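Researcher: Structure for this, please.
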Amino acid sequence: MALTRHISRQENELVLAPLRTPSIHGLKARFAPFHAPNTPDSRIINDRFNPRRFKLLAKYSKVAPDTLKWTVISSVSTKTIPMAVMRNRMKRRWANAFADALRSNGYHVNGRSLDGPKDGKGYRVGLYGTVEIHAYAKSGLTLEYADLVSSSTILVRALQQQVQKVKPRLSSPALSVEERAGRRSTWSTWDGNE
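Model: Predicted structure, token format:
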């Protein structure tokens, strides 16, 4: 049983490429067309002595390849927003706005399409990969919620375009439940010889 190779923080910076979007209220995103650990998780995975390391490896090995993993990271300094409560509130507002933007564009929160069959012959792959959304400005606290959703919609549309460019990565658009369960993530912890 062999463990997969772990990428360092510098390699993770290269794996998650910037998502090209117009200027959006201090919001930037990075995208990878496969499931890569987000920046906080990659620090834990690369630390050999961290007790949470194998738990995270198991978590990333169980993610289906046709789902979207996304997270909001607060990149605002403590000088700009000194209270951690307000920084966390800003992250929650952006996360809720992004989830609402996904739903309004016809996707579930995990990136799968809301319409059509969920598996079988007519199954269509929706959004997939890893997205990190970085909030760089305190405008997430002061803007109306509708403005946050419209800004997040711009991100979703840019994500749709990026996924269309790399669409052939999944071999078959019509995967059955058994086939999807049998496919492993790129972060699988075991080599399949169980």
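Researcher: Any notable elements?
Model: DSSP finds seven helices and four strands in the chain. The first strand starts at residue 17 and ends at 18.
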